[in-house]
Design a protein that fits this description.
mainly beta, 4-stranded antiparallel β-sheet
Length: 94
């Protein structure tokens, strides 16, 4: 902590690491739309590719690691009011 003209000044440097995994699964039932826009299911689901048609269930997973560096500075104007400025830089995202 450094003091300028009797006001405290805080400077912080740090890093962060976040990691997330998103998974999605979907399947498609066949249905028939009625006059009132309600779809009635037939009980038939699209199977694997080619059974009965070429589009089937899907599943995917996405892994997202993110590294960041940050710095922030807080200047105490009064005991009850402070100004803060900072910057975060994303170092890596796959």
């Amino acid at each position: 902590m450094i003091s300028y003209s009797g006001h405290n000044n805080h400077f912080v440097i740090g890093t962060s690491f976040d990691y997330s995994v998103t998974r999605l699964r979907a399947r498609a039932p066949l249905g028939t739309p009625a006059r009132n826009y309600v779809v009635s299911g037939s009980g038939i689901f699209l199977g694997q590719s080619g059974d009965p048609v070429s589009i089937g269930p899907v599943a995917t997973a996405h892994h997202q690691p993110v590294q960041r560096a940050l710095c922030a500075r807080t200047f105490d104007v009064t005991n009850a009011f402070s100004l803060t400025g900072g910057r975060a830089v994303q170092l890596r995202a796959d």
